[in-house]
Write the structure tokens for this entry.
Amino acid sequence: MTYCIFCFCDNYVFLYFINASHKMKNYPVECQHCFFRMTLCKTLSRREFKALYKMTKQRIFQKGEVIFKQGEKTEFLVFLKKGMAKLVYNNHGKDLILSIDKAQSLLGLSNILNENINFSSIVAIEDSCGCIIDIDIFKKTMLSNRQFMFEVMVISMRLFRSSVFNFINIAHKQSNGRIADMLIFLSENIYQNRSFQLTLSRQELSEFAGCSKELIIRTLQNFCSDGIISISGKKVEILDIERLFLISKTG
């Protein structure tokens, strides 16, 4: 068995891997080359970044672990460095997946404008790794640096737009169109390939498309029979993207 420990030192994170024989190896990851530092924090001074960095911790999220819980007050954001997460809204006991986000992304941004209350739950779809960022320090940095605030709003709107489009599709399209949209979204935005290893369960697919699990299974089987996709275990391949777009448009 292998264990993982994170240790922080100035601009480096040392990942210690300990195996059963207690041998230890460390692999330095330079925070200054991190996506978060290179993009979102590119407008920050060294002093501003250090203030954020001092209050940041790194941790592992297990598959199925709730990162943010709907309705609860939170004191942090999460920069997802590795893995994938779903935004889940629970309405009277029924879950609806609003959107899916993958590394590298910043989770929990909507809480900043919602009195730090989680609008929805965010749950790890697979084993993931993230940096826990103090939300108060993050807010202070936004208020003192307008360019940083602008970059944050751009990321926030991207995720919000994805959730809104998914909601519109669910409200105005039949099941075939919704499931086609979902496959296109997963292919283009999440896995970035027309052939991918599906990390979502059939239940999660049904919550994302807003229909029953049985309907998901039946529609996917029909798509396979029509030569639009092929499925082998967890592997999905889109064979006819034009027909999938046509179903999305007419559905």
Remarks:
- The two ends are 49 Å apart (CA to CA).
- The longest strand covers residues 94-102.
- The domain at 173-250 is CATH 1.10.10.10 (Arc Repressor Mutant, subunit A).
